[in-house]
Amino acid sequence: AVKSSTRLEKAIVDLPEIKTIVSKTGRTDIATDAMGVYQTDVYVILKPKNEWRKGINKNILIDEMRSKLEEKVSGVNFNFTQPISMRVDELVSGVKADVAIKIFGENISLLGDLAEKVRVVAEKIKGNSDLQVEPLEGGLQVKIIPDREKLALYGLKISDLSNITEIAVMGKPVSEVIDGKKRFTLRVGFASAEKTSIDELKNLILKNSKGELIKLEQVAKVLEEEDLEAVNREFGERRLIVQTNVRGRDVGSFVKELKGEIIKNVRLPHGYYIQYGGQFQNQERAMKKLSIVVPVSIIVIMLLLMGNFSSIKHSLIVMLNVPFALTGGILALYLRGMYFSVSAAVGFIALFGVAVLNGIVLISTINLLVTKYKGNIDEAVFEGSKERLRPVLMTAMVAMFGFLPMALSNGSGAEVQKPLATVVIGGLFTSTFLTLLVLPSIYLITHKRKKKKITTK
After folding, report:
1. Whose CA, among 5, 108, 172, 298, lies 20 to 30 Å from 101?
2. Are strands 99-104 and 273-278 parallel, antiparallel or unpaired?
């Protein structure tokens, strides 16, 4: 593991954006740590962005690291992620990737075939990155196969053979060492540093009841074979994982397309099924909650507006700010090349509140001026819009400038802050503009139409 991680470090360390590289092999004593003892995390510490080459961003840097690793290091599976994201992915699905396709079934060979079919399908989906199948085979095993006839011929038992190999390979427990409250198992074993090599095992000496010395290879076959690396289980069933990161598109649409393609192209035998895990699970759960919270919030706002204005018409005019703000938020995300996420959804909720507040400020003032000018709607709308120009602009600009540092941030947590701030700034820009121009026009049109109808009667 140390040799492999050193090769990885040397392969990419010459990139100018890299400050230093630190590798960590194995796992902690924390029960929730999903990392295997054979896995290595290579932490690439980057220099500040102002020291990067011109035109380089994180995705381009990842592509450069990947090409160098593929060129200089063979026989290693790797994927690119970030520490906090990796830990969240591990806790959610047990893998270090955005999307995990878990295949459940009993037959290991069949699971391997199905995983390869899923990998081929996933490879064709736009946005896949670091695609890999959980290693199934590749673990080297030393097999000692006893020849019972020869054991009987030399007067030996299976237990004689197992005892000597246990002592040679891992040592045999013979006692306990007590140090205060601590207890340690005392094992007796061979001193040879090469005790687990094939030749050493073949030359192990067994002694029968007559005192004759027999080599292990005379009564057993000693083979080194490639076998299963691990048999992983979940929910009491065997499972194999195909994992991938998502680059250049949102995780939700990637998983939706992937599910459709797998249903069309991968036929699962009876008793085998697929589950999807990874980062998108958090998004799905959050979106389900938001699909309830957002409509309820809008209904509550509408009821409060009706209580404030005692008019459905005025309440609906104010609520027009919601689609105005929504348009600006979506446009801002598109222009910055960002995708709709949970943080962006939270940004829309904050945005709707400020946008509706601006609408209330404007419509309340116009209503008061209508009474003051004795029903002269044209003058009331004109004066109200002029009077509320500065308050509406100040409300919007305070929020926009407040969120600007978040929208431009590149430090820790920027991936959460940027979408939220981008939505609020973009939405306020359009909703403020439309509040000052469109809402007064709509107010004027609706009230003049009403006045015309009353005059006709």
Report:
1. 5
2. antiparallel
Retrieve residue 138's tokens. 């590749």
State the average pLDDT over residues 99-105: 88
Q: Are 306 and 312 in contact (CB under 8 A)?
A: yes
**3 state DSSP class of 220:** strand
Lookup: tokens for 131: 């695609």
* Angle, CA 367 vertex, CA 361 and CA 368 arms, to 5°: 90
Strand partners, 184: 177
Radius of gyration of the chain (CA): 34
Give per-residue pLDDT as tens, 373-414. 777 888 888 888 888 888 888 888 888 888 888 888 776 667
Cα 304 from chain centre: 39
Q: What is the DSSP string of 243-288?
A: EEEE-SS-HHHHHHHHHHHHHHH-PPPTT-EEEEEEHHHHHHHHHH
Query: Which residue type, as a one-letter code, is found at position 149?
Result: E
pLDDT in tens, 418-429: 888 899 999 988
Whether residue 426 contacts residue 328, with contact meaning beta carbons closer than 8 Å, is answered with yes
Cα–Cα dist 255/223, whole Å:
44
